[in-house]
């Protein structure tokens, strides 16, 4: 059997070592295919089995990292701060601002998951001035999702020594084009969103159809699905400077339960 995230990894055709996917929902869930090598993370990630497709087939391993709050931060802005009425408004409002106004939001409502594992961290919004608008805060929330994803990607690259060339994405939040572009910009790699939305179900079907004794198809020869690709458009200097400030914001939200 396959878990949800393993099925999505397979459904995204991350069949080779050095490929990864991220599922965006209430939280974010990243899996990185490490091939036949079981890597014990030294950078805050979990080691898991990706799949074993048959009794005599080799085990394929993965590294896993989770973000506790992603889409849940958008819901919080709507329900608790009431700065917009419908989630569908988010992309439009955030797109009116070309930047966050140097605002950073760390949505550590229940601590921080990978790669920090800090249960005493608490949420914070820093960099607010009298010029800060709701669009800045909404855009900073989208960027927070991307920065947290980059945190995990950085850990994966360090553990595996194979920098990702692209990130496969799925989940409800991927319909937000601005979020996908921000993810590409802040990670420095293309973000690939398949037109096939149900990648988890697809992965389960792919595994079943390629199982020993069935072999309806060979995974290596399946046709690729159509997709949308978002490529980075910011400079390395801008990307790195923004990431440095994100890390500063994260540091400020640590150790509140004293």
From TrEMBL:
Keywords: ATP-binding, Glycerol metabolism, Kinase, Nucleotide-binding, Transferase. Its EC number is 2.7.1.30. It is an enzyme of class 2 (transferase). The keyword Ribonucleoprotein does not apply. One of its GO terms (molecular function) is ATP binding. Pathway: Polyol metabolism; glycerol degradation via glycerol kinase pathway; sn-glycerol 3-phosphate from glycerol: step 1/1. It comes from the Eukaryota. Residues 20-211 form the Carbohydrate kinase FGGY C-terminal domain. Coiled coil: none annotated. One of its GO terms (biological process) is glycerol-3-phosphate biosynthetic process. Pfam families: FGGY_C. One of its GO terms (cellular component) is mitochondrion. Gene3D superfamilies: 3.30.420.40. Belongs to the FGGY kinase family. This is glycerol kinase.
